[in-house]
Amino acid sequence: MDRKLLELANLKEEARLGGGEKRIEKQHQKGKYTARERILKILDEGSFEEFDMLRKHRCTDFDMEKNRPLTDGVITGYGTINGRLVFIFSQDFTIFGGSLSKTYAEKIVKIMDMAAKAGAPIIGLNDSGGARIQEGVDSLAGYADVFLKNVLYSGVIPQISLILGPCAGGAVYSPAITDFVMMVENSSYMFLTGPGVVKQVTHEDVSTEQLGGASIHSTKSGVSHFAYKSEDEAFEGLKKLLSYLPQNNASSPIVMECTDPVDRIDESLNSIIPSDHSKAYDMKEVIKLIVDNNDFFEIQSSFAPNILVGFARLNGNSVGIVANQPKVMAGVLDNNASVKAARFVRFCDAFNIPLVVFEDVPGFMPGTNQEYNGIIRNGAKLLFAFAEATVPKVTVVTRKAYGGAYCVMNSKHIRGDVNYAWPSAEIAVMGAEGAVQVLYRKEIKDSDNQEEKVTELKDKYNELFANPYNAAEKGYIDDVIEPANTRVKLIKAFAMLSSKRDSNPPKKHSNIPL
Q1: What is the spatial distance between Cα 228 and Cα 240, in angstroms, rounded to a whole number?
Q2: Which of 19, 129, 169, 213 does the annotation list as catalytic?
Q3: Residue among 405, 425, 472, 493 flagged as catalytic
């Protein structure tokens, strides 16, 4: 027995060494942790339980049978983060450059299946050279097997991807399907075709970082939800993100102890809206003054910053926040903002996270660029997402709520549960500037002093329509509230909605305008 135990110990020690000391050192020289080090830094100490440590690939082409390292280049298992069960896989760049084989894919699929059965989040740590070329179509089949599980378990368990090195070609599609993507600046990248192919086909001379680095995907493409300066920062971000999420679609997020008074009144909110309604203010400040401990965990902060999405807590309960940002492009809805917010709304709805909407929107962005790129279709995605969502939904109109954008931003008409407005709210088809040109065109034309007449008519229009009271008269606004009381009102509304029941008609699935 001692001999057998020694054999087992030796095998496991061999597996833990991955591709060997030299390759581990090379990984460290790049400023990167190894696959195992990453897992141990993420999970609670002593909680990791590994599966398939002794698996090997089955390929015999290109003399591959002579090189069959244990684990085959991916570490899989389960553990806990702050006491909560999670499943995890970590690609090991020290073995075959982390390239994916059929065996490797089987290990990932197994752990994904187990995560779904156990009803726990799945975390993928990506650091791979792509498909293992020696395995040919088997490696492609392995990728597709993983993609299928990503799709089947979407909306069932939270799926989070950390890109901690290369992720190229077909490998990018698994992270793209997952709920959240985190990247590390200057060490991770994602693209379908590399700089060499790009130069050959389109004659563009572009670096790896310029083509698919963390900065590009967090500002231009929107593929990455978070960009961090180091792996350690990414791991902390992962832990904070998970703290807002439930284990699965059949459970609710954990309620944290609230150390911020539920009845806290913040008088500064009464003066946060500028008296000149053409001036901007920072909606992030509004959010922070209302939520627990001023803590707003923003998502995709550098992509489509004219709309804010993220998580916070109200009386210890996790909420998803969608808010127009008047500080950027006046908070207008454009293509990117619409898609960003729609996806976030659908995630929250899938995982039982109530939604708070802070609205100050002058409308949809005009222009050929927006129209040609599908603002009708993309704006409809946000409308669709809010209308489809059955979680508790509360809207606060802080200032502008114009035209179709008013309808889209969780209005009463698309099943907003509770709709509040501040006295500064302006709920109308359009702003005074455009409205008077339509309504009073002849009067303006016939006036001796057109500029003075326009000002007079704008004041008249604002008095009639630039307020929340017309909508309140019709029941479209449930209450006009003092801004300072917003926190109290929201907490009470969500307490009332805690047992809300709503559903959509039976169907195979909806057909969102993709």
Answers
A1: 13
A2: 169
A3: 405
Average pLDDT per consecutive 10 residues, the chain (514 residues; last block may be shorter): 88 89 92 96 98 89 84 96 98 91 96 98 94 89 96 98 92 96 95 88 91 95 96 98 98 96 96 91 98 98 98 98 97 98 98 98 95 96 98 98 95 97 92 76 73 75 84 96 98 97 94 95
- Per the residue annotation, which of 194, 222, 316, 404 is the catalytic one? 404
Which residue out of 119, 136, 155, 170 is catalytically annotated?
Answer: 170
pTM: 0.94
Do 2-243 and 267-429+467-499 agree at the fold level? Answer: yes
Judge whether 493 counts as a catalytic residue: no
Which top CATH class is 267-429+467-499? alpha beta
Task: Round to whole Å and give the CA distance between 202 and 190.
Answer: 18
Domain spans, the chain: 2-243, 267-429+467-499, 432-465
Is 83 known to be catalytic? no
Whether 169 is a known active-site residue: answer yes
C-alpha neighbours within 13 Å on the C-beta side of residue 497: 24
User: Using CA of residue 347, residue 349, residue 353, residue 356, what is the dihedral sign?
Assistant: positive
Is 2-243 CATH 3.40.50.300?
A: no
Residue 466's Cβ-count burial label (10 Å; 0-12, 13-18, 19+) is buried
